[in-house]
Amino acid sequence: MIEGNKKTFKVRDIREQFPVLRKTVYGKNLIYFDNGATSQKPQMVIDAINHYYSKDNANIHRGVHYMSQKATDEYEGARVTVQKYLNAEKSEEIIFTKGTTDGINLVASSYGELLSPGDEILITAMEHHSNIVPWQMLCERKGCVLKVAPINKKGELILSEFDALLSSKTKLVSVTHISNALGTINPVKELAQKAHAVGAKILVDGAQSIQHTKIDVQDMNCDFFVFSSHKVFGPTGVGVLYGKEKILDSMPPYQGGGDMILKVSFDKTTYNELPYKFEAGTPHIAGVICLAKAIEFIDSFDMVALEKHERELAEYAQDMLSTFEGVRIIGEAKNKTSVVSFVIDGMHPFDIGTLLDKQGIAVRTGHHCTQPLMDFFKIPGTVRASFAFYNTKEEIDIFITAVEKSINMLR
Amino acid sequence: MTLEDKQQEIIQDFAMFDDWIEKYEYIIELGKDLPIIDEVNKTDDRLIEGCQSRVWLDSEVENGKMHFYADSDAIITKGIIGLLIRVLNDESPEVVAKADLHFIKDIGLQEHLSITRSNGLVSMVKKIKMSALIAIGNN
Can you state the angle between helices B75-88 and B20-33, rounded to 10 degrees? Predict the structure, then answer.
C-alpha cells in the first residue's frame, strides 16, 4: 500500500525482507536488539552486493571501457542519492569514507590543520570514544584545548554549561546527534546556532540518528555530518562525511594517492577538486552503491511512522523493565529514542548479557565505547537493548521474560 | 590426580547437565563459592582489563607447586575462573606452562575464551602461563 509515495508501515512485511531475522540461535528464534551496534540488512541490499560483484565489478573514474563507465555512473549516482537523502545542497559535499570514525578523523586531521595553539574544541560528556580520541590527538598535535560540556543525571546535555564553555576561542563543536549509550537526542539545530554565534563550526555525529530520524543538513545547518552505512541497513566499511562546500574547499587533503590528484610530478602535485580531493585510492565501490540501495529502502517508508514505532518499543521496554526490583534505567532524557540502557543492582551487565544470549537475545553489554560516560554514572557498563523498526512488542515480551529468568539465576 | 584427570572430571560433571540453564546455574554457584580477593589486593598489577568484565589474578609457588588466586566483578567469569584454577592449582610450573586446557571447549564454554567475549579470560590464561614461565626461569 502506498500513502503519498511512501509505503504504509507494517512490521510483519518489513521483517520478511530481513532474512537474518528468521535465524535461530541455540534453538531459539533470534531476537536482535543490538541495532545500535549494527543494523541487519534487507534482501535488496544483499542482492545488490551479489549483483555488483556478479555483473558490474570494475574500477571507477579511470577506464574508457563500458564496465568502468557503468560502475562510475552507479558510484556517482549513489552520491546523488545520499545528497538528496541528507538534503545537502550539492553532491560535491558528499565524501565517501570508511565510516563515522573515519569521517571524524578526516575532519580532525584536515580541518584540524587550520587550527592554532589555544583554539578550543567543544564536545559533550556523552560522546562515543570516536568523537573524543581524534580530538585529543589533534590537541596533542596542534596545542588545541578540548572542552567537555557536562550532562545531568538524566543523561541530558546541560545547555547553560554548554553556553558557558562556548567562546570566541571555540573553533569547532563536535557533538553526537543521538547518544549510543543513552538514546538521548541532542538539540543539534540549536547547538549549531549557538556554535555559529561565536564563529565556531559544528560537526554532528549521526552514527545513531541516521537510521532513526530524517536528516536535513541544511535545516540543521551543521557544517559537517558523519554517519556509517552499516547502521542504516547498508554494508560495513563505508560511510559518509557531509561538509559544506566552502569549508571542505578550504581544507587540505586528508590522504594522498590515486584519484585525489589533478597532476603529479616530482616537483609539485596539484590536487583534485571536491569531492575527489578527499577520496584517495580505490574506494569501497560496492559498499557505496549498496549504501544507496539501503537509503532507497529506508526512504520508501514513512519516517514519522517508523520513528513513532521505535519510540513506542523503547518506552514499552523501559516501562516493563522498571517493574523489576533493582533495575535502574541509565539515560532518562525527556527526548530520547530506540535505546534502553539499564543496570541491575548487584549484577554485572556481562552476566545478564551472557544469560540473555543463551536465550537467543542479542543485546550489547559493557561500556559501549563511552567510558567517561560510564564513569559519570559510576557504573562499569550497562545492558543495552537498541531497537530498529523491524523489532516488535512481542519480542520485547520475550526479552522481559528472559531478563526475569536471568535475574533469578543470578540472585 | 593429573591435570588431565582433573579436566576429565569436569567434563564428566558437565555431561550430567541437561540444558544450558543447569550448566550456567552450576557456573554461577562456582563463581559464588570462589574465595573473593580482598579489596586491598585488587591492585593494578594484579588486574587484567577486559572490555566487559575485570579479572584480578595472583599466583605463588610453594614447594614447586603453583597456586592461583583470582577474582572477577562478573560472576560467570568468576565461575569459569574457578574451573581453570581447579585444574591448574597444585601443578608444577612446567605442567602449567604446557597445559592444554581443552576441557573449556569440551564443556561448551569455548566462547568465553574467544577474543570477542572481552571478559579478560584470554588474557588471564596468558598471564597464568607467563607466571609459570617466570617460575621456571627463577628456579
Answer: 80
